[in-house]
Amino acid sequence: MPTRYELYYWPTIQGRGEFVRLALEEAGASYVDVARQSKAGVSTMMKMMQAETGTPPFAPPFLKAGALVIGQTANILMYLGDRHGLAPKTESGRLWVHQLQLTIADLVQEVHDTHHPIGTSLYYEDQKSAAKLRAAEFRKERVPKYCGYFERLMVGSGGPFVTGRKLTYADLSLFQIIEGLRYAFPKHMKKFERKIPALVGLHDRVAARPNIAAYLASDRRIPFNEDGIFRHYKALDK
Q: Which intervals hold domain GST N-terminal (predicted)?
């Protein structure tokens, strides 16, 4: 029997859990988004994280697959990629896609730090001045550095996806990066996207895939909001 996965993540935001959702949806995998399906889901998630034995995850997202409990977004995607045709078959190919996903994770952290540069326990309003400085540096230096890197990979891939002819979970994650940056920095991205046509093309191809298109049109796709990683504050988008 196919595995029915249990995804544990916060019920009202896309966040890091969205990278996992996109892979599950593209694969047509059977899964339960636990905290969204049950009022007790969050408390169950917290209890699993606080366990003293086994392999308790540090933080969500994490995935339960049979007896396995797998934490860390890139780790979950490596597992799903191997089992659902979303990763290369060779060891070198799998490591390469995992490396790309870890680079994406670095970018996601930098996105988060644009609105919370001092501390996650503080409100955005408590660090607004520092956020303006961090966001300005992010827009000027970090977006071109990261997106320029993936643009070069797309141009050199020889195919419609970042590793060539076959879609991997890294392509799904790059789709989410462009979606998130468009939401958080719409003014900046409107100008900047002219410099990354191959990456924008990848975004559009992923969005048009039947399973992804159906997911995006469904209520399973949580809208972006100002509680997630990608947040839109006018003061940070110049």
A: 3-88
Which of 210-218's residues contact partners 24+ apart within 8 Å by CB, and which partners? 211/25, 211/26, 211/27, 211/28, 212/22, 212/25, 212/26, 212/172, 212/175, 214/25, 215/21, 215/22, 215/25
Six-digit token string for 15: 């966040």
> Side chain identity at 174, as an amino acid letter?
L
Is 3 in contact with 62 (CB distance < 8 Å)? no
List C-alpha distances in Å: 159 to 26, 99, 176, 196, 207.
19, 19, 20, 16, 17
* DSSP string across 64-75: EETTEEEESHHH
- What single letter denotes the amino acid at residue 207? A
Long-range contacts: 161-167, Cβ < 8 Å, 24+?
Answer: 161/202, 161/205, 162/100, 162/202, 163/88, 163/93, 163/96, 163/97, 166/88, 167/26, 167/86, 167/206, 167/209
The CATH number given to 91-209 is 1.20.1050.10
Pairing of strands 5-8, 31-33: parallel
Packing angle of the helix pair 128-137, 91-115 (nearest 10 deg): 140
Strands (E) across 29-182 are located at 31-33, 62-65, 68-71
Q: And the tokens for 234?
A: 């006018």
pLDDT of residue 39: 81
Tens digit of pLDDT for each residue in 81-138? 999 999 999 999 999 999 999 999 999 999 999 999 999 999 999 999 999 999 999 9
The structure's pTM equals 0.96
Of the ranges 2-11, 86-95, 154-163, 195-204, which one carries the lowest mean pLDDT score?
2-11
